[in-house]
Write a structure and sequence with these properties.
The complex is a heterodimer of chains A (111) and B (113). Chain A contains no helices and eleven strands. Chain A is mainly beta and 111 residues long. In chain A, strands 2, 4, 5, 9, 10 and 11 form a six-stranded mixed beta sheet that branches. In chain A, strands 1-3-8-7-6 form a five-stranded antiparallel beta sheet, with no helix packed on it. The model of chain A has no long low-confidence stretch (mean pLDDT 94). Chain B has 113 residues and is mainly beta. Classes of the chains: A mainly beta (111), B mainly beta (113). Chains A and B meet through strand 4, strand 5 and strand 10 of A and strand 4, strand 5 and strand 9 of B.
Chain lengths: 111, 113
């Protein structure tokens, strides 16, 4: 079945350093979404990418969708303590309406 | 309402008992989803409702799990004869349509003792 792999599983960075998490799918995706889950909270929708090669920015966050629509990345510039949490990618194929979540990357910021 | 509402927020039950978890989605959202999240783990898909279509039950782990959505709005997830491995946070989400971002509820933390 469809799988969405996300790496790394954990990332510790010093405050102010950059952070990137990568998402790879075994099948071509129609779109990909990114969510953030703060410790003790629930996932919150960040963004959706639809087009091949699409790049979107939200302040210090940059999201990319690969040309083949099988991979995606989230890059955070100059991390802050408020960035702590788990970042999930979630992909949808043309065959299915539901999205499949990756296992997430847990970001920990060292002060 | 303004967001997705789930109840109860916490549920402790004895092994073998049945439990019902409730989800009240955002008004007007046609799609409703149930996911399960074990401590520190990812989100496991359980079931998906879209409008009046037959639900996608492909993620339900066993026949002890069932869900319904009444009137295209409120949904109830029922777990019969609970087992300790059912302990997790059960998250409900809704979206305007199947191609839109999900809004999650705060979840129900189920503990089976």
């Amino acid at each position: 079945g469809q799988q969405v792999m996300q790496i790394p599983q954990y990332q510790h960075v010093q405050e102010g350093e950059d952070f990137t998490t990568y998402c790879n799918s075994s099948t071509t995706l129609s779109n990909i979404q990114w969510y953030k889950q703060r410790p003790g909270g629930h996932p919150v929708f960040l963004i959706q990418l639809v087009k091949s090669g699409e790049v979107k920015k939200q302040k210090r966050l940059t999201f990319q969708f690969g040309e083949a629509k099988k991979n995606s990345s989230l890059h955070i510039t100059a991390t802050q303590t408020t960035d702590v949490g788990t970042y999930f990618c979630a992909g949808r194929t043309n065959r299915d309406d539901k999205i499949i979540f990756g296992k997430g990357t847990r970001l920990h910021i060292l002060p | 309402g303004a967001g997705v509402s789930q109840s109860p927020s916490n549920k402790v039950t004895e092994k073998g008992k049945d439990v019902e978890l409730r989800c009240d989605p955002i008004s007007g959202h046609t799609a409703l989803y149930w996911y399960r999240q074990s401590l520190g783990q990812g989100l496991e898909f359980l079931i998906y409702f879209q409008g009046n279509s037959a639900p996608d039950k492909s993620g339900l782990p066993s026949d002890r799990f069932s869900a319904e959505r009444t009137g295209g709005s409120v949904s109830t997830l029922t777990i019969q004869r609970t087992q300790q491995e059912d302990s997790a946070v059960y998250l409900c989400a809704s979206s305007l349509g199947p191609g839109d971002g999900y809004t999650f509820g705060s979840g129900t933390r189920l503990t089976v003792v």
